[in-house]
Design brief:
By secondary structure, the protein is α+β, with helices and mostly antiparallel strands. It has one domain: Jelly Rolls (Sandwich), CATH 2.60.120.620. 22% of the residues lie in helices and 28% in strands. The strands form 2 sheets. Strands 1-2-3-11-8-13-6-4-5 form a 9-stranded antiparallel sheet, with helices on one face. Strands 7-12-9-10 form a 4-stranded antiparallel sheet, with no helix packed on it. The site of fe (ii) ion has 4 residues, from loops.
């Protein structure tokens, strides 16, 4: 029998470098790239420290007491109860993603109150901070002239008694995803979001422990969540294109053409500078 080469599994590591679109502002956005061993394939992501301020995170978490029953429909990745709270679906405010077990008591009322409280907050952040970031990264060739649009947005929680993992998957529903950490303190949980190339490679954990830290990636990134201890809260938004000019196919997931990098125009560059100057100022407060 042929034996495996002694270098198997192949060495594998995520590569991190300063994200070039943000070099000038030197705010520490990092581009990571996962290269599949032996095949010429890679997937990139950008980690943005403090995309939201801690005050913004506190405002979101303030609407989410631990006693709030989350939605328990089957998760699309592993079929177990999802423990999600959907706030946006198909580009619109939603009251529920899918039917699931009745939360009992006044559970629905509590969920509706939480969504109503989150709606203005998340909506402003999605349009003013998240969507332009996605459009700047993937470009108008992919996002459409009007820019990428938030299609789905939900809060996830990983409580010790509920869910510890979200198995690795691609976000096939999304052109691009933004995940924002909703931690109130940096030691609220251990473990977290990992990126992977599957097989025998070792997953790479991303450090998103500070509330407001965010990662932006396209649908082609293999990723998942494993919480080793504590409670983790995250805000997940899936983006599609602008929905213009493609009839019913609009807003369907689209693969980012490989190696495409958005070329930022002066207006977008200025906007990014401002986002980063603001986030630096927030850090200094
Ligand atoms: O909770 C997270 O950080 C990510 C969850 C995720 O990958 C997803 O909702 O698609
Ligand atoms: Fe995902």
């Amino acid at each position: 029998m042929k034996s495996l080469p002694s270098t198997w599994p192949p060495p594998f590591e995520a590569r991190f470098e300063t994200y070039s679109a943000f070099n000038e502002t030197a705010t520490g956005a990092l581009e990571g790239s996962m290269s599949w061993p032996r095949i010429n394939q890679s997937a990139a992501f950008v980690v943005h420290p403090s995309l939201l301020s801690l005050d913004e995170v506190r405002a979101i978490r303030g609407a989410l007491p631990e006693s709030l029953p989350f939605e328990q429909h089957e998760d699309s990745v592993d079929g177990y109860a999802a423990h999600e709270l959907w706030v946006w679906n198909d580009g619109e405010y939603t009251t529920q993603r899918r039917a699931g077990p009745d939360p009992g008591g006044d559970g629905h009322k509590q969920q509706m109150a939480a969504r109503a409280a989150l709606r203005p907050l998340l909506s402003t952040l999605m349009t003013e901070r998240l969507a332009p970031l996605v459009t700047a990264r993937y470009g108008r060739g992919v996002c459409g002239a009007a820019g990428c649009v938030a299609c789905s947005s939900l809060i996830r929680r990983y409580l010790p008694s509920e869910r510890r993992v979200h198995p690795q998957h691609f976000d096939l529903e999304a052109l691009a995803t933004v995940v924002v950490s909703l931690s109130l303190t940096e030691d609220e949980y251990e473990g977290g979001l990992f990126v992977h190339t599957g097989g025998q490679a070792r997953p790479q954990m991303l450090d998103l422990h500070r509330g407001g830290d965010a990662v932006v990636h396209a649908g082609d990134l293999l990723h998942g969540v494993r919480v080793n201890s504590g409670s983790r809260w995250s805000w997940v938004t899936w983006f599609g294109n602008d929905g213009e000019g493609e009839g019913d196919a609009a807003r369907q997931p689209q693969r980012r053409p490989r190696d495409e990098r958005a070329t930022l125009d002066a207006r977008e560059r200025n906007w990014l500078k401002k986002v980063y100057a603001d986030s630096r100022r927030r850090d200094e407060l």
